[in-house]
């Protein structure tokens, strides 16, 4: 038998754990949040019990009629749910209509508490009188705390009973309503899902317990009044930032590669922005463009303007965009440059010399040799940069406050923290992810290297 | 006309002098081989000629034009790089056509010349392929094709065969020699392989430590090396060197080697005589000694240490004084290790070498 080598599998294990824990799980959760409505419909039960057969589902918001009600023992996890209707039942002792001493359960609807201990615990009460002539004037005493449990005795009105124990029951309603296909369904549901109207006979399904796939959050996102401005601004910034960045980065890389005298100083200077956080860059540029900021002082100092100009206001959106553009250029060009420099270093000197020797001028070398050989590096940088550009956030917030000029990441943030709508925030996040992936695939296909094509 | 004149060219890297005051003239259409051990400055000198790395001192003329300060593309030269320097992102066709495209040659003419070059190097079927998964031999052919397609009057080649395996190298050597004879450009061919140098060059320039040691035709370089370095570097096995003691006996200059006496040829007697009472180095090539199995009066008796049968010859290692000497003999001559033989040194084949400078004495 061939002995199996397990080492590679052991090595894979941490990677798998990492992928599952830090990558797949959050991704899947995020995706689910954006397309899964946790409370799409409410399940009707055939009897007033969560374990009974299902009698159908009614969507959230359906108008319903309340047919009947019944109390059920309350489980702890729903004890403080909104809309929860409860009733109390008492285990009481006393004398029944036939003169026997009895012990059994009676609802708070039938027993008026007359005496309570200091902490509010009921001690004694009297049976209420029944109104209406047709009703049985006696009150049922049940074996357990439920109106459907067997009746063990009957007591007269005004009978004094001593309370031994209190049980809190959740009210269940038997309801009737129409589903999406117009079918009328009847069944039992717990009160906490139901909003009861004033007439006590009708209501609507307020919350639900059955999840379903939905595009509602994406619809909400697209119809959000900030959505299209955010998309427009994000794409506009990408369109203007990325090409400018690549030209700049390539020039910077070529300057470094030219092995000038102060080569390494250039590299250090060009790399400084790598160490500055995007929020800091945003604040830095805010301090330049704000009304009594650097730009105005310089312009005033030079006598070019007499009065400080406002730049970062709602009336000067173009200035905000220019400031964002400059800040992003300043901030993120170096990462592109670093990648391009490493790509340039991978090009063999002899190949460049051969190009020179065979008659190529600098521009011909750049166009026919350097750029084609840089393609893989440029591809990596492009993908990285585009993804970062789709996610642009802190700089925009710092320069515009997030209202005058908004971007997709800002809307994600707004949905989550301002509107507390995690689902729509997720939809935005998924939209950003899709844009990033689309651009990556696009670049991988469009900027293919020659070798791959052959 | 593309005569290359290298005048007093020096090239330094920091404190290190890679090429030291080189002077070399390569005639129009001549095939000059630049040979020397690795690191002796061959590539540096060739790059100076190509314009890749400016010479620090001196002057370089190509076809009567001073090109010392011209960039490579204005020197009208073509080159095969040691690592081939093929453009990895271009098909073979575009590689070969590159120089022609850059210099805006007419499309039809480019096509004609590329096909011609490809045909000369038997790579027509590779024209449509990318170089990334080609063998060393194929890349080498592409590099040569690219260089000759330029039809420049000067062709520089930096160890074009050194990256090939031994068999392919042997094959390409002959093919390249014929090809280069056909295209008839002024060629400087750099190699560290002395056999390549001997077999290919019209003339050979031997370099060591940045200094040009000797420039001459292959046979002259082989027979009459200017110094012990050239003698030892050129030829396989290298020239044998022994220590001799110069003495005068009855007005006759004699050199004592081991226990025996050698008589310098009459035309060199006077030169050797200057070292009377001093030691001198005696140089002789392995195939220039005559091996005799019977005692002879004018031959030196030696004991054979090792016998190496090489097929076309037997190589004997013998000891003369403190020096080991390689002797080439006819394969039919039956000699065993430990056997005593007699070596005859033909006077005109012995090279007398000044000990200090290593300079070979000639009349
Ligand atoms: N760019 C360089 N910088 C520093 N030293 C170099 C450089 N190029 C070559 N050298 C040195 O110059 C010497 C000659 O190199 P080279 O001309 O390449 O030798 P060869 O081609 O004869 O093997 C070597 O010692 C090498 O280390
Ligand atoms: Mg070299």
Folded structure, characterized:
The complex is a heterodimer of chains A (454) and B (363). By secondary structure, chain A is an alpha+beta fold. Chain A has two domains: 40-211, no CATH class; 220-453, MetI-like fold (Orthogonal Bundle), CATH 1.10.3720.10. Chain A is 46% helix and 22% strand. Chain A is built from 13 helices and 14 strands. Chain A has helices at 7-35, 216-223, 227-257, 263-271, 278-289, 294-301, 317-345, 349-357, 362-390, 394-400, 408-418, 422-446, 450-453; strands at residues 36-45, 54-59, 63-73, 86-95, 101-107, 111-116, 122-127, 139-142, 151-155, 160-178, 184-190, 194-196, 202-205, 210-213. In chain A, strands 3, 4, 5, 6, 7, 10, 11, 12 and 13 form a nine-stranded antiparallel β-sheet that branches. Chain A has a three-stranded antiparallel β-sheet with strand order 2-1-14. In chain A, a hairpin with a 5-residue loop joins β4 (86-95) and β5. In chain A, α5 runs parallel beside α10, α7 (317-345) runs antiparallel to α10 and α8 packs across α9 (362-390). Chain A starts with 6 loop residues before the first helix and ends with a helix. With 363 residues, chain B is an alpha+beta fold. Helices cover 25% and strands 33% of the residues of chain B. Chain B has helices at 42-50, 92-102, 107-120, 136-149, 166-183, 194-200, 218-223, 228-233, 269-273, and strands at residues 4-13, 16-26, 31-35, 57-62, 65-66, 77-80, 154-158, 186-191, 203-208, 211-216, 240-249, 252-257, 260-262, 279-284, 290-292, 300-309, 314-320, 323-329, 340-344, 351-353. In chain B, the strands form four sheets. Chain B has a six-stranded mixed β-sheet with strand order 6-7-8-3-9-10, sandwiched between helices. In chain B, β16 (300-309) and β17 form a beta hairpin. The longest helix of chain B has 18 residues, at 166-183. Chain B starts with a strand and ends in a 10-residue tail after the last strand. The mean pLDDT of chain B is 93. The interface between A and B is medium-sized, with 22 and 27 residues. The complex binds adenosine-5'-diphosphate and magnesium ion. Magnesium ion binds at residues 42-43, 82, 158-159 of chain B.
